[in-house]
Design a protein that fits this description.
Blueprint (H helix, E strand, L loop, with lengths): L9 E7 L2 E12 L4 H16 L7 E11 L7
Parallel strand pairs: 2-3
Antiparallel strand pairs: 1-2
Length: 75
């Protein structure tokens, strides 16, 4: 879930020099979850999923854009 109007919740950039892939993920977390734990889990899952066809090493940045009240945020 992206916040801030027209922000893109997922951005993928491949580069040739040096070869690699960078992904930036924007998401909201429920207040019932620890933002750091969610960010680390998302970063690990995205990196593993992106490695297959990447032109080189994969880096992932996760930005928590909101902490939502209540239960889990719908996806």
């Amino acid at each position: 879930m992206a916040r801030g109007g027209l922000a893109c919740p997922v951005r993928i950039e491949d580069s040739d020099e040096p070869p690699g892939r960078h992904l930036q993920i924007h998401l909201a977390v429920a207040e019932t979850h620890r933002a750091l734990d969610v960010s680390l889990a998302v970063r690990a899952a995205v990196a593993a999923a992106a490695e297959g066809d990447a032109p080189g090493p994969v880096t992932v940045a996760v930005l928590v854009t909101a902490v939502e009240p209540g239960q889990a945020v719908p996806t």
